[in-house]
UniProtKB/TrEMBL annotation:
It comes from Streptomyces marokkonensis. Its EC number is 2.7.8.5. The lineage of its organism: Bacteria, Bacillati, Actinomycetota, Actinomycetes, Kitasatosporales. The gene is pgsA. NCBIfam families: pgsA. This is CDP-diacylglycerol--glycerol-3-phosphate 3-phosphatidyltransferase. The chain crosses the membrane at residues 81-101, 113-131, 176-194, 206-223. Residues 1-63 are annotated as: Disordered.
C-alpha cells in the first residue's frame, strides 16, 4: 500500500502538535467545540471520559503579576491635585488665625484678609473631594487629611470668634460637639456599614460656611442682623442633621446585627 510522505501531508509529526481530543478521540484544535458543545481553549483538555480539565495557561502567573503591577501604577500619587488642595487648606488654618486675631482682632482690613483665607479654604473643600472621586485620586492620606482640614478651619474660626466675643460660646460648643460626635459615631458603626453624607448635611455645611464667613467680616447694620439669622439657621441644621445621623447609625447597627445572626443560623444549619 503506497503511503503519502509526512512532508506532503503538512509536515512531520513533531512539527504538528495535535490539539485536545474530544470524546470521539479525534484531535480537537483550540477554538473548536467539544462533543459537549463547549469551546475548547488552549488551557483546556477533554479527557476520554468527556470531562474537561482546565490547566494553567502559559504566563498565568505573569498575568497576576501584571495585574498587581498595573494596580501599583494606577494607584494615585499622594502629590495629586486633590491632596494638594487639602494641604493648602491645612496651611491656611494658622494663616487664617493670625489674620483674624491680627491688630487686636477688630481691624476691618485684617478681618477682610482673614475672610479671604477662610473663603479659599471653603472653596478648596468643595473641589478636592470632587476631583478625587471624579479622577480616581482617592488616597489614604486624603481620607485622613480631608476631614481633619475641614474640622480644623471651621473649629479655628468658631473658637477665635468666641474668644473675640463675636459669637456665643454655646454656639461654638454645639457645632463642634456635633461634628466631633458624628465623626466618632461613624467610626463606631463602621463595622456594620458606612453612613452616607445626606443632602441635609451638605446644606448644613454650606450654611455654616456662609454664617461663619459673615461673622469673620466686620459687618454692621442690617448685614449684622442678617448674619445672626443665618447662624441661627446653621445651628438648627447642625442639630437636626446630627439627630438624623444618630438615627441612621442606630438603624444601620440593628440591620448589621440581624444580618450577622441570620448568617450564623445558616452556618449552624
Amino acid at each position: 500500500m503506497t503511503g503519502v510522505p509526512a512532508s506532503a501531508a503538512g509536515g512531520s509529526s513533531s512539527a504538528r502538535r495535535p490539539g485536545p481530543r474530544g470524546a470521539s478521540g479525534a484531535a480537537q484544535e483550540p477554538g473548536e467545540r467539544s462533543a459537549t458543545g463547549a469551546r475548547a481553549t488552549p488551557a483546556e483538555r477533554t479527557t476520554p471520559g468527556g470531562a474537561v480539565e482546565r490547566g494553567a495557561t502559559e504566563g498565568s502567573a505573569g498575568g497576576r503579576g501584571g495585574k498587581i503591577a498595573a494596580a501599583a501604577v494606577n494607584q494615585a500619587s499622594v502629590w495629586n491635585v486633590a491632596n494638594l488642595l487639602t494641604m493648602l487648606r491645612l496651611l491656611l488654618v494658622p494663616a487664617f488665625v493670625a489674620l483674624l486675631l491680627g491688630n487686636g482682632g477688630y481691624d476691618p482690613a485684617w478681618r477682610s484678609f482673614a475672610w479671604a483665607a477662610f473663603a479659599v479654604a471653603m472653596i478648596t473643600d468643595l473641589f478636592d473631594g470632587h476631583l478625587a472621586r471624579t479622577y480616581n485620586l482617592v488616597t489614604d492620606f486624603g481620607k485622613i487629611a480631608d476631614p481633619i482640614a475641614d474640622k480644623a478651619i471651621m473649629g479655628a474660626a468658631l473658637v477665635c470668634l468666641s474668644v473675640l466675643g463675636d459669637l456665643p460660646w454655646w454656639v461654638t460648643a454645639v457645632i463642634l460637639g456635633r461634628e466631633l460626635g458624628i465623626t466618632v459615631l461613624r467610626f463606631v458603626v463602621i463595622r456594620y456599614g458606612v453612613i452616607p453624607a445626606s443632602r441635609g448635611g451638605k446644606i448644613k455645611t454650606l450654611t455654616q460656611g456662609i454664617a461663619v464667613g459673615m461673622y469673620v467680616l466686620a459687618l454692621t447694620g442690617p448685614l449684622a442682623t442678617l448674619r445672626f439669622w443665618v447662624m441661627a439657621a446653621a445651628v438648627v441644621l447642625t442639630v437636626a442633621t446630627g439627630l438624623d445621623y444618630v438615627k441612621q447609625a442606630i438603624v444601620l447597627r440593628r440591620q448589621g446585627i440581624a444580618e450577622r445572626r441570620a448568617a450564623l443560623k445558616e452556618t449552624e444549619v
